[in-house]
Amino acid sequence: MNSPSLLARFANRFDAPDLRVAPTSTLTFAGIRIEVLAGLTVALALVPEAVAFAFVAGVGPLVGLYAAFIVGLVTALIGGRPGMISGATGALAVVMVSLVAQFPEGVGVQYLFLTVVLMGIIQIFVGIMRWGKFIRLVPHPVMLGFVNGLAIVIGKSQIGFFKTADGSWMASSQLILVLALVALTMAVIWGVPKLTNAIPAPLAGIAITAAVVIGFGLPVPKVGDLASISGGLPQFALPDVPLNWETLQIIAPYALILAAIGLIESLLTLNLVGEITGQRGGASQECIAQGAANTVTGFFGGMGGCAMIGQSMINVNSGGRTRIAGVAAALFLLLFILVASPLIEQIPLAALVGVMFMVVIGTFAWNSLKILFRVPKIDAMVIILVTIVTVMTDLAIAVVVGVIVSALAYAWQNATRIYSKAHTTPEGAKVYAVQGPLFFGSATGFIEMFDIQNDPALVIVDFADSRVADQSALQAIEAVAAKYQSAGKSIQLRHLTRDCHRLLTKAGHLMVDSDDDPDYAVAANYGVRTGILGGH
Question: Rounded to an integer, what distance in angstroms lies between the CA atom of residue 398 and that of residue 395?
Answer without folding.
Answer: 5
